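User: Please fill in residues for this 135-position structure.
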C-alpha cells in the first residue's frame, strides 16, 4: 500500500492518450477517446500498487487497486483503478484508468491541452487518495 507523500512522474506518450486506437493488440475494435496514466514498474513494486491479480478478479479494494483521485487543477475527480500488468499473472499494476470508464481522463486531458511529452506527477495524499498534477 502506498503511503502519504509517495509519488512518481510519468511522461505521457501517444498510446497513453489514444489507447482506444493506438493499442498493441487487436483483441477488440478501436474506440476513440480511451486514455490512461501509466505506472512505472519500479514505482508499482516500491509502493505496492496492485492490479486485480492481487485480490482476485472482481474483488477490488480501496487503497489496494482503487483510489479516490483528483487533479490539482480541479478539473478531474473520480475513482481510479490500478490495472494491467507488464507480465502475465503479475500482481503489480501498469496503469491507472477511471473505474468503468476508459474515457475518464479524456476531458481533463483535452481541457489542459495534454500532448505526448506532457509530464504528470502522481502523489498519494493518503493511502486511498491520489492527486494528479500536470507539470
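Assistant: Residues filled in for all 135 positions:
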Amino acid at each position: 500500500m502506498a503511503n502519504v507523500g509517495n509519488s512518481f512522474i510519468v511522461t505521457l506518450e501517444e498510446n497513453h492518450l489514444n489507447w482506444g486506437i493506438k493499442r498493441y493488440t487487436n483483441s477488440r475494435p478501436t474506440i476513440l477517446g480511451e486514455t490512461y496514466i501509466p505506472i512505472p514498474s519500479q514505482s508499482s513494486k516500491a509502493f505496492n500498487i496492485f492490479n486485480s491479480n492481487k485480490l482476485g478478479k472482481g474483488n477490488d479494494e480501496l487503497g489496494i487497486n482503487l483510489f479516490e483521485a483528483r487533479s490539482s487543477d480541479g478539473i478531474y475527480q473520480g475513482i481510479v483503478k490500478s490495472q494491467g500488468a507488464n507480465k502475465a499473472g503479475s500482481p503489480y499494476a501498469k496503469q491507472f484508468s477511471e473505474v468503468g470508464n476508459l474515457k475518464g481522463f479524456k476531458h481533463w486531458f483535452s481541457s489542459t491541452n495534454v500532448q505526448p511529452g506532457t509530464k504528470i506527477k502522481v502523489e498519494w495524499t493518503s493511502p486511498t487518495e491520489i492527486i494528479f498534477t500536470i507539470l
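For context: The first strand starts at residue 7 and ends at 11.
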